[in-house]
């Protein structure tokens, strides 16, 4: 997948491979995505639920759908937006933070240093009923993958 600056519809094999990954890694049933089109732009995978005619009617599309997955050296990393929308369907590799201290550590971009019942690699992180985003679970702990612009600051939670 070379960067062309344009969206391309993923082939049937590419889509099947992505659905296999989401089902095997996170237990998200493939039928969840039956009405979605997977697109690639550069190395990233996007997901789109609209009318495919829109792709042919517009000469140059800057953004369509949401960015879903990005390749990294640790594997395909789901984006925060993708996880917040589709993470509720996940049955595997979902980790739950146990208290506000862990929540603040994770949401501020830190590492939650404890063991979780999950495979090493990317996981879906939740607190209570809320899906927070993606974390990278390693031997070090749960490393926040929350984008810098969405992180909270610890000082917001400290009494003045």
Explain what this protein looks like in three dimensions:
This protein is α+β, with helices and mostly antiparallel strands and 160 residues long. It folds into 2 domains: 88 residues, Nuclear Transport Factor 2, Chain: A; 59 residues, Roll (Archaeosine Trna-guanine Transglycosylase, Chain: A, domain 4). The protein is built from 4 helices and 10 strands, in the order βαββαββαβαββββ. The chain is globular and about 55 Å long. The model has no long low-confidence stretch (mean pLDDT 89).
Mean pLDDT: 89
Strand order of the largest sheet: 1-2-3-4-5
Low-confidence stretches: none
Helix content: 10-25%
Distance between the termini: 51 Å
Q: Which radius of gyration do the C-alpha atoms yield?
A: 17 Å
CATH architecture of the largest domain: Roll
User: Might you state the CATH topology name of the largest domain?
Assistant: Nuclear Transport Factor 2, Chain: A
Question: In the CATH hierarchy, what is the class of the largest domain?
Answer: Alpha Beta
Structural class: alpha+beta
Number of strands: 10
Biggest sheet details: 5 strands, antiparallel
Question: What is the tally of helical segments?
Answer: 4
Order of helices and strands: EHEEHEEHEHEEEE
Strand content bin: 25-35%
How many domains make up the coordinates?
2
Shape call: globular
């Amino acid at each position: 997948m070379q960067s062309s600056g344009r969206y391309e519809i993923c082939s049937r094999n590419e889509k099947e491979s992505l659905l296999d990954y989401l089902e095997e890694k996170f237990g998200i049933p493939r039928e969840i995505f039956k009405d979605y089109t997977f697109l690639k732009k550069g190395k990233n995978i996007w997901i789109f639920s609209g009318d495919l005619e829109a792709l042919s009617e517009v000469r140059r599309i800057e953004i369509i759908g949401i960015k879903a997955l990005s390749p990294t050296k640790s594997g395909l990393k789901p984006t925060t937006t993708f996880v917040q929308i589709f993470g509720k369907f996940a049955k595997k590799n979902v980790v739950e933070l146990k208290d506000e201290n862990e929540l603040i550590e994770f949401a501020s971009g830190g590492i939650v240093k404890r063991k979780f019942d999950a495979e090493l690699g990317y996981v879906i992180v939740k607190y209570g009923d809320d899906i927070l985003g993606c974390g990278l679970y390693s031997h070090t702990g749960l490393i926040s993958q929350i984008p810098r612009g969405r992180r909270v600051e610890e000082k917001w939670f400290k009494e003045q």
